[in-house]
Design goal:
There is one protein chain. With 523 residues, the protein is of the alpha+beta class. The protein is built from 14 helices and 16 strands. It has a 5-stranded antiparallel β-sheet, with helices on both faces. Strand 15 and strand 16 form a beta hairpin. The longest helix is centred in the middle third of the chain and has 44 residues. It is elongated. The N terminus and C terminus are likely disordered.
Length: 523
Amino acid sequence: MASTDPRPESGTYRMLSPSPEIMALQDAVNRMYLARDSAEVLQILGEAARSYSGARSASVFLYDPDPNALSGGDVRLLPETAVVDYVFEESKPPTVPHGAGFITVFPMRAQQRRVGVLVLDVTGMAEEAARMNPEPVNVLADQAAIILQNVQVVSRSLGESALLGNILDSITNGIVTLDLESRITRMNRNAMAMLEVSGDVVGRPYSEVLLPAVVGAVRELLNETHHHGYAMEKMVEARLPSGLELYLAVSTSLLRDDKFLPFGTIIILRDMTASHELDRLRKLDQMKSEFVANVSHELKTPLTSIKAYTEALLEMARDEQTKSFLRVIDEESDRLLYLINDLLNVSRIQSGKLKLHFQPTYPRLIVDQIMNISKVQSADHTLEIQVDESLPEMLLDREKMKEALINLVSNAIKYSPRGGTVWIRMRRDASNLRIEVQDQGIGIPEEHQKNLFQAFFRVDSSHTAEISGTGLGLVIVKAIVEHHGGKIWVESRPGSGTTFFILIPIRQEIRRGEPGWELGSMA
């Protein structure tokens, strides 16, 4: 009896070769995986689907970036919303009338998410399309959806990486990130410029790239960070390959993922060179102020004795020549004492030790009390006093305000070498005391006015060459006015004289936090 077993006598199965259409579809899937971008994936998908089905044309519509609207493709083939919803709900491609023809719509889905639809124009061949096996094209469309989603994820990741890189490069600090094996994973431009590093450093150990002094600090910080989770910032002095000295503040912190597990370390480098230099200059300035203050104190004591003995000798002198010599000594002693007092005041201002002692004072009294001082007296000038008698009693440091007025009036006299009138005006301006000192002198060029209140500044011109001065008086005046909570400014034109203006709040009491509260005692 003959055997009915269809298997070959050798006992092996005969493998059926896939059809050319299936092989073409497999080749299309492979080419889509190797595609360079989304456009190439869509092109391969359309060509393969059209070749398999014999459709007149193929078009792909995607939901990205709008998840609620399809875009792209040939708008003449865009299916109605009801058809699209049916396609995804039933997971099978219907052939439906569309315009003057027919279309077959295939869903494109990845991880249960709608990616888009593949539409074939089957006008004139609707019956053939209905009989066609849709499964190969379904597989092709789903594979394309997965590939497109992966491409979008990669593109988004690359975009976020580029954005992160731009952000890190825009940060003024140096940023270096390391993996768990202490290899560099990223280094921003500022870190490379700061440390004079060039070339590709990603993947290299930080110990081969960073400066030796920085490497030592980072190693200590990493040990502390890995043991405690944080480390205190360290100051490092390093020498660059160019020979320049660099002062850095180095800090580190652990990088953690969304599960709070460490996956690396970030190193932050702050260039403190400018701050270090400013700190050095500040210390030098403090030393200078202390030196000036100490020297001034040492000079003041013998000068006071010289002046006292000179005045005694003047009373004892009988001949005019001796008196003349002694008067010169007395006047020069006064000049030196004024200079020393100015230096002491500037030193106190710069060190923040200028103290004001407020007491109720009528502004008119300050003007009256300075009239007998030699610095505001001149045979060639007329002092014109204009004080509003209704000015109320207010809190002022009387001695400091006298000093400010003496400086302004003596300047007005000095810088009016041809004589003339000097006006001292006081009046109320809203809730402020307004003081004006005006002269008919040589004036001040506009380009020099902004520097008048800087220490040791003097206008350099032929008119001022023979006028003595240290350039400290206006600095002291400005400090006194500002410590009263006021302000000072100047208006002047060369050849037309100068006017200094002072505006000080009229106060009967000084509350906590107001200008003057922390500067001295209340009398």
